[in-house]
Amino acid sequence: MVETIPSFGLGTFRVDAEKTANAVESALQLGYRHIDTAQFYNNEAAVGKGVRDSGIARDDIWVTKVWWDRLARDKLIASLKDSHAKLDIGTIDLALVHWPSPDGAVPIAETLAAMQEAQKLGLIRHYGVSNFTARLLEEALEAPGGREIVTNQIEVSPFLANRALVDATQRLGVKVTAYMPLGEGRAHNDPTIKAIAAKHGATPAQVTFAWLLSRGIVVLSASTNAQHQQSNWDAQKLKLDADDIAKIDTLDEGKRNANPSFAPKW
Asked: Which of 82, 123, 148, 250 has its CA 20 to 30 A from that of 164?
């Protein structure tokens, strides 16, 4: 049984449901053991099929479930039951609060109590949060059950190093998981990252992922192509030197890609 979040995972955001099952199956067969999905992505059933078809023991796979805005107790439990049925792979390893409740309309204590109930019902093993500011994370950690929060999934890329929030999250003892790590594809064509990639005989994506891993951040990479999945996976072998890291650090612009109207005030 995997009890800690594997540091390199497959993201399924914006992956067509028709392609998702094959993408999950190939990734797991290549060595991935962390699959990230969400009710909002509309591909949970396909993720479950990919897990079942992979031939990899279910207990060796970490499946993350995030959802949209069903944070009140009854809605949360219903949401997880729905996801549990669609995935059809047994207990979900990790459920995340996809976004904080706007203006605190649903108290975090209510949501965490529902998470604990979901654990008792066998729907989930662990829970965490996503898109929480440092202040909101501190508030969540202080609530009953808050100390069981295992990760804060946030946007992190070379163009949004998000250093203050990353540092605060790690200081609080919570793992950081990065989404949109390539800055919506910008990393592929950035001159600085391309130069570092050429130096190491690597791809810009590999360099970016290695930079994130060097900061102790869990990486979610997204690809439906088995060759690209393998290339991304191999980023774990790449070791950047201090000069490489310093150059990538200069790319931070502090600009978010994911900043909807209901997001907390950063």
From this structure: 148
